[in-house]
Design brief:
This protein is mostly beta strands and 230 residues long. 10% of the residues lie in helices and 33% in strands.
């Protein structure tokens, strides 16, 4: 038999044995109508075959005893007194609580392919359920001008892992190769052949000689050669 969460408390005093009954389906309809008037969603279960002693509408009282429309008490205060409690599995309060779990996140207005540079007008703010907030981008300034590492659909939260790393020196960028020989400093035009952060070792190409050498990334425009290459 299908389990239904309800408690029946009958205090029956059949003074009129010929009294008509009220069925479970009729009570279900009355409870559902009451829930709708209270602005709550309804999802209750009462066996249609169950019969209760007749109760007029003026003697039938329906109340919320949970404060969230989860538990509904139905009582007849007429000649044949009875009462029971039925569970409502779905209600507006639960739905509202779910919406409170949403947070504002930055997303893209339209689908964007990998390699696209993000502009200010590409970014929108939406509400989403987010399970992992650790890598989530919080400010527009962290996105504008950045390049997408992979394609992203619209209305999806943007994470730092979706963006290309902001290297100090980017591959194929024009740089100055600085080589100190004693008190003399020699500077040549070069091309970075790798991405690099501060003081990372990277390969560079001397534009004048065509020679490929290694150096240290000192700033966005300068690579200092290793001492052993002097």
């Amino acid at each position: 038999m299908k389990k239904i969460f309800y408690i029946l408390i009958f205090c029956l005093s059949f003074k009129n044995t010929n009294a008509t009954s009220i069925t479970g389906s009729e009570l279900k309809e009355k409870i559902s109508n009451w829930l709708e008037t209270m602005g709550a969603k309804t999802n209750i279960e009462i066996l249609d075959s169950i019969k209760y002693p007749f109760c007029t509408d003026k003697d039938l009282f329906i109340t919320d005893i949970s404060g969230s429309y989860r538990l509904i008490k139905v009582s007849c205060l007429g000649e044949n007194k009875w009462s029971f409690i039925v569970r409502n599995k779905k209600n507006i309060q639960i739905s509202n609580n779910n919406s409170k779990n949403k947070v504002n996140v930055l997303a893209l207005r339209n689908n964007k392919k990998s390699g696209t540079v993000i502009n200010d007008e590409d970014i929108i703010v939406i509400k989403k359920h987010v399970s992992n907030k650790n890598d989530l981008v919080q400010n527009k300034t962290e996105i504008v001008g950045k390049t997408l590492k992979k394609s992203i659909n619209s209305n999806r939260p943007i994470y730092h892992s979706n963006l290309e790393k902001d290297w100090l020196i980017k591959k194929n960028s024009s740089i100055i190769i600085e080589n100190k020989i004693g008190s003399i400093t020699v500077k040549d035009q070069g091309i970075a052949l790798e991405n690099a952060d501060f003081m990372d070792v990277l390969k560079v190409k001397n534009v004048k000689s065509g020679k490929i050498i290694y150096g240290f990334a000192e700033n966005k425009k300068k690579v200092v050669l290793k001492t052993k290459q002097n």
